[in-house]
Design brief:
With 734 residues, the protein is of the alpha/beta class. 36% of the residues lie in helices and 10% in strands. The chain is built from 23 helices and 15 strands.
Length: 734
């Protein structure tokens, strides 16, 4: 996970400036540096819709007094004022026609008097209702919830309705989160470095805390609350154990205080070796009574500093850290040690299912399932096992993780990676909403047809009392938060899908475009189409036909299929297995038999060469170069076709974006145009380098109707990307 941050000025950065398109002449748009994210409350552009909104909304009435209700009042004042282009009165002395009435039955006599009790009971603590109805015989819009934070979520939902220019007539929204724990995991360190971070340093200024609390924390929490995110792990899995010392607990407490009014609880990393590293013990054995007592005292200390502390994220026996296996104990033993210490306080253990043994595995993708599934039922009730979306490591495409659905007695927390470690970092435009939807809608068949991953995540498949979804954050100190504008969409999509995993990624993409860029119909259609095609484009020019882990082991950036040195299961050659006979990893019964980890009929589908989808062909099968696929092409020709199609898709995105000159503010237009120029060059680099290498194995030509790679293989093998002051330069990509 460790790695330094490559900036936007990478492989082709200096060359990209020459291809930027100027914004066409016309009425200047408001400059936008991206800081406001999707919470840009600009005047509604459609005149008829604006008139309707102004007629329907004339007053804000927020009854009640709490830090969260104060935020609701401020957000509606700011948002409705900007969207309607006028200041609205907020007095509650009398209710006018067109009032927006906000509150809970406990805080608001107006809400308590309405016939909403049964409907409110149905939405739980965090849900909300938005209703167009009559109050004191006057038309009004009511936002009601069972808690102040539910009301806050409802306020953001109403503002989204106006931002996306949807009608208010007959408004009737009922919404409740399908997933309990909706969290961001920051891979941030105490020195403000970020493992796999591509948007500057950490937003947490540990050296200044607790005395100075940055106003950026509230802006961050506000953005999360607008999506319904309710938990944050502020430290990475490998963070220094000092984060659990009294000094740092006071600092973490100041962060918790800033986030609490927005309905967000914080979690911290618990290094398994902390009893040794900061406690002075000789062991961290989870069954040692002294170790158990040390953790009980430490947890009491944490809750004294942070009364609503959420719990610990733990990563054991991975990336050089000790864990329970160090002491010949199981992962359940390790998790239960902490769970027992946390249970009196209501805290959770999030046991990260990432295991990296010291020995090379015959098939690394089998490891997590083989280690953890036999432990189903052994974990304490306040343990959630945090499982990656795929069995390997956040690749451009993987099959869904077979652990999902295979541990019916253990709550599983699904983990996506928003920071695009293997997908072009902050430069390549890759909308991850489609990846998330692909995983969430996948059917595990663990309890027959309809046993989707979404039902595993929300707990409904096995009746789990806990449910959760985590996103490895792509957020940093850059002014625009995520390093590039389109990476904001991945933060946004995660939050929306964590609230409701059944949502369409296309609907979420459109909402993001309308809230972040423009409601202009051309902009919406063009950008939505770019986003929806972007991930498949990246898969095509990086890992087509089920290839995986094609990057160098260190920075995970750029093609390196030729790498064989080092630990075998950390090299691309281990995964693609290309040789003179063919390409792909045999995971059927004749190979590693990883396919047995899936339920039927998935097992039969993936394990049968005739039935496996082409998109996962080489993940599960070693296939001859000249074998024909359903497309009628040979494996080699199909591989070539996919690589070139990926580059063509990036060309298409460039052309599409260029048509929006004058419709997007110049600052963001230029940034995206420059990033797309880099992406196009690097997509060709991926294509040409990969095909040059695979030619050495297949001994087959690239058909003559394709543009031939301009360089020999050894040129690509010498490149080191991305260009960064701390790494060799590679501006020579042509």
């Amino acid at each position: 996970m460790s790695g330094m941050r490559p900036r936007l000025t990478r492989c082709a950065g200096r060359l990209a400036a020459g291809v930027l398109l100027l914004v066409s002449a016309g009425t200047p748009l408001r400059a936008d540096d991206g800081y406001e994210l999707w919470l840009r409350y600009v005047l509604v552009s459609d005149a008829a819709r604006l008139a309707q909104y102004r007629s329907a909304i004339t007053q804000i009435v927020v009854e009640g007094d709490s830090p969260t209700l104060d935020l609701v009042r401020d957000e509606l004042t700011r948002g409705l004022g900007g969207l309607l282009g006028r200041e609205l009165p907020t007095s509650a002395r009398s209710v006018h026609a067109g009032a927006v009435i906000v509150g809970t039955r406990a805080s608001s006599p107006l809400v308590a008097a309405l016939p909403l009790a049964a409907q409110l009971r149905a939405v739980g603590r965090e849900g909300f209702l938005i209703r167009a109805m009559r109050v004191h015989d006057k038309p009004a819009i009511v936002i009601a919830g069972n808690s102040d934070v539910g009301v806050l979520y409802g306020a953001f939902a109403l503002l989204r309705q106006l931002q996306t220019q949807r009608p208010l007539k007959g408004l009737a929204i009922t919404s409740a989160p399908r997933v309990q724990l909706r969290m961001l995991d920051h891979w941030d360190n105490l020195d403000r470095s970020v493992d796999r971070g591509y948007a500057g340093g950490s937003i947490w200024s540990w050296a200044e805390l607790p005395g100075t609390v940055s106003p950026r924390y509230a802006d961050y929490a506000r953005a999360n609350a607008s999506l319904g995110i309710n938990a944050v792990v502020v430290t990475g899995p490998n963070v220094n154990a000092r984060v659990l010392t009294p000094e740092y607990l006071r600092k973490a407490g100041a962060i918790a205080d800033a986030l609490r009014p927005f309905g967000i609880r914080i979690f911290l990393t618990a290094r398994f070796g902390a009893p040794i590293e900061i406690g002075g013990l000789a062991t961290a054995d989870p069954l040692d009574p002294v170790v158990r007592q040390w953790w009980r005292h430490k947890v009491d200390e944490v809750y004294a500093a942070i009364p609503d502390f959420g719990g610990f994220l733990v990563q054991g026996n991975a990336e050089g850290q000790p864990g329970p296996e160090t002491y010949r104990r199981t992962h359940a033993d390790g998790a239960n040690l902490l769970a027992d210490a946390l249970v009196p306080h209501g805290g959770l253990v999030l046991w990260r299912a990432y295991i990296s043994s010291d020995r090379t595995s015959p098939d690394r993708v089998r490891e997590i399932y083989d280690e953890l599934v036999p432990l189903d039922g052994d974990f304490r009730r306040n343990v959630m096992v945090q499982v990656k979306n795929g069995p390997l490591d956040f690749q451009p495409r993987e099959p869904f993780n077979p652990v999902l659905g295979a541990m019916p007695r253990t709550p599983l927390l699904l983990e996506f990676q928003l920071t695009k470690e293997y997908l072009g970092n902050d430069t390549h435009l890759v909308y991850l909403g489609t990846l998330m939807e692909e995983v969430l809608h996948a059917d595990t068949f663990r309890k027959g047809k309809g046993s989707t991953v979404a039902r595993v995540v929300d707990g409904s498949l096995h009746g789990s009392a806990r449910s959760g979804m985590a996103g490895v954050a792509n957020i940093g100190s850059d002014r625009n938060w995520t390093g590039s504008i389109f990476d904001q969409a991945n933060w946004y999509a995660f939050g929306r899908l964590a609230w409701d995993p059944t949502l369409s990624s296309g609907v979420v993409a459109e909402d993001w475009v309308r809230s972040t860029l423009s409601n202009d119909s051309t902009v919406v259609a063009t950008v939505r189409a770019m986003m929806m095609a972007s991930r498949e484009a990246a898969v095509s020019y990086m890992t087509p036909l089920g290839l995986t882990s094609m990057t160098a082991a260190s920075n995970h950036y750029g093609p390196a299929p030729w790498v064989t040195n080092g630990r075998p299961d950390w090299t691309p050659a281990y995964y693609h297995r290309a040789d003179a006979t063919g390409i792909g990893f045999d995971r059927t019964a004749t190979g590693s038999n990883a396919v047995e980890q899936y339920a039927e009929p998935i097992r039969a589908r993936y394990g049968n060469r005739e039935n496996v989808p082409d998109s996962l062909l080489l993940w599960f099968h070693h296939v001859g170069w000249r074998e024909r696929l359903s497309t009628g092409r040979t494996v080699w020709d199909e591989l070539v076709s996919r690589y070139y199609a990926g580059v063509d898709s990036v060309h298409a995105m460039q052309r599409a974006w260029s048509t929006l000159a004058g419709k997007i503010d110049e600052e963001r237009f230029r940034q995206v145009q420059g990033a797309l120029a880099i992406q196009e060059r690097e997509a060709r680099w991926w294509r040409d380098a990969s095909l040059r290498y695979f030619q050495t194995q297949s001994r087959l030509p690239i058909p003559s109707h394709y543009e031939q790679p301009a360089r020999p293989l050894d040129f690509y093998m010498r490149l080191r990307c991305p260009a960064d002051p701390r790494r060799p330069r590679c501006d020579a990509v042509r």
